[in-house]
Known about the structure:
The protein is of the alpha/beta class. It is 28% helix and 18% strand.
Amino acid sequence: xxxxxxxxxxxxxxxxxxxxxxxxxxxxxxxxxxxxxxxxxxxxxxxxxxxxxxxxxxxxxxxxxxxxxxxxxxxxxxxxxxxxxxxxxxxxxxxxxxxxxxxxxxxxxxxxxxxxxxxxxxxxxxxxxxxxxxxxxxxxxxxxxxxxxxxxxxxxxxxxxxxxxxxxxxxxxxxxxxxxxxxxxxxxxxxxxxxxxxxxxxxxxxxxxxxxxxxxxxxxxxxxxxxxxxxxxxxxxxxxxxxxxxxxxxxxxxxxxxxxxxxxxxxxxxxxxxxxxxxxxxxxxxxxxxxxxxxxxxxxxxxxxxxxxxxxxxxxxxxxxxxxxxxxxxxxxxxxxxxxxxxxx
Length: 345
Ligand SMILES: *Cc1c(COP(=O)(O)O)cnc(C)c1O
Ligand code: SF4
């Protein structure tokens, strides 16, 4: 076993197995039965105390089961799926889901309906059917490989997937979405970087949410990727009690830039069922952007975006985007249709 596989194998998957000082509420066990818990030993080591920003991202709570507002499939992906495993929302790019497992299960995940579910398996036959669709749909120029976490797959299988995409003549760019540089940086080995760099132009968008995740291990992992010629971006999710203030966000964005990671998006948290307690009102994101613009290097300022519920796509919001009073906000998607995002209770 590689070192990362040992760290992963020793994950805590049961709330009762957490150290006493990190114990969640009594309802956490029922929550974890619905939405699995996995905290690998590396990410567990980042938690300093009960209720800190790392703890909140990883440890289940009974609040998840009391969500009355959010949706099982917040981005309407099941209706935008021409073949199982492929989500085709924008004309020129498609999302290929290759894995349902992750190195850590984020409590705010937008695909909680899928991630970590036993019994949900994506096999090579399913991926080949997606390749066939892509071959017959040449207007798709970019394939986003995501999940779950694609980099949790083993080297040879990942190599096979990327080679299959690369062999489709109409695909110009490959993008990999992965939280592994943050949650299990030991997985980024020189061998993995050598595999990825065979498939240029290949971009990675990773996902850090708090400056305390910017460890020496994560810095090393991202350095390996960037040195392999892979542009690395970051998609941060705005989360209540975790990073919903301007100072924390500024420190995160500055720290990412020092690691040669380009902040790409801050996302308004999706309305994913079981995550209402971690969302912020849209207004909060605009306030934070107002405090970042101009105060940070332009290279460290990402776009703030909301991915519209129901499949409208991402819309970028700026501090002067007009908002109505109340919890319901209507935005126009790229197709011209209108979609409503509802602030948390
Ligand atoms: C987010 C997303 C993309 C990529 O959008 P960008 O704005 O290009 O980053 C593509 N397809 C789907 C289905 C998505 O959810
Ligand atoms: S790593 Fe991404 S896909 Fe996996 S649980 Fe976290 S947010 Fe969801």
